[in-house]
């Protein structure tokens, strides 16, 4: 990842932990990262939304090189043992995140777009047309087998999980289409329409 983002000046990876026991905590209307107050909850969500905004490319016809980040099942709660939403993510060298989410139940496909923040290593993205719902995690988090994802929408925050799916086997057999989701204590937000609703926070210092 450091080779891919060679000009970003990252000295070490930073992991964002959301939910019980994590290093990103909401308390009395403020967001704390590693026990340091960063912003109000509203400002943190607004900063995540700003990260998720993708600028219009200066040269839209220029070929872009992408680094695949993986294919994940999106688990929304401890009862979501067989997640129906599958997410694929990739990132270019400008930190633009692209991908898609498919709902296996409805066979609907949604585009994903977002960005990586150079200063904080945070990733924020939206799914489909639900631009008021933002998903946030860390770019290092996305190299792990599973990662919590902070989701904001309607003034609320929820924690989902991205669970990495295995690559297809050498014999061409398909990767597993479902995973068993570990228990999470958080409820879910469902956005208007089939895509999950959420909105995400803003930059926390990289340590």
Main sheet properties: 8 strands, antiparallel, barrel
Helix content: under 10%
Strand percent estimate = 35-45%
Number of helices: 1
The topology string of helices and strands comes to EEEHEEEEEEEE
How far apart lie the N and C ends?
Answer: 17 Å
Tally of extended strands? 11
Which radius of gyration do the C-alpha atoms yield? 16 Å
Low-confidence stretches: 174-207
- Tally the structural domains: 1
Strand order of the largest sheet: 4-5-6-7-8-9-10-11
- Form type: globular
What does this structure look like?
The structure is a single chain. The protein has 207 residues and is mostly beta strands. The chain has one domain. Helix content is 6%, strand content 37%. The protein has one helix and eleven strands; from the N terminus they run E-E-E-H-E-E-E-E-E-E-E-E. A hairpin with a 6-residue loop joins strand 8 (122-127) and strand 9. The longest helix is centred in the first third of the chain and has 12 residues, at 41-52. Residues 174-207 have low confidence and may be disordered.
């Amino acid at each position: 990842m450091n080779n891919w983002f060679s000009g970003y000046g990252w000295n070490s990876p930073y992991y964002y932990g959301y939910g019980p026991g994590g290093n990103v905590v909401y308390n009395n209307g403020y967001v704390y990262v590693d026990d340091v107050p960063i912003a109000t909850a509203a400002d943190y969500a607004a900063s995540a939304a700003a990260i998720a905004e993708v600028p219009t490319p200066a040269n839209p016809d220029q070929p872009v090189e992408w680094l695949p980040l993986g294919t994940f099942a999106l688990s929304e709660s401890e009862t979501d043992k067989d997640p129906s939403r599958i997410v694929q993510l990739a990132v270019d060298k400008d930190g633009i995140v692209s991908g898609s989410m498919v709902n296996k139940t409805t066979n609907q496909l949604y585009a994903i777009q977002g960005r990586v923040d150079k200063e904080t290593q945070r990733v924020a993205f939206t799914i489909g047309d639900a631009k008021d719902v933002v998903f946030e995690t860390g770019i290092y988090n996305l190299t792990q087998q599973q990662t919590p994802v902070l989701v904001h929408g309607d003034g609320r925050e929820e924690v989902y999980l991205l669970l990495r799916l295995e690559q297809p086997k050498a014999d061409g057999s398909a990767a597993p289409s479902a995973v068993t989701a570990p228990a999470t204590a958080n409820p879910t937000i469902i956005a208007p329409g089939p895509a999950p609703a959420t909105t995400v926070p803003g930059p926390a210092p990289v340590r």
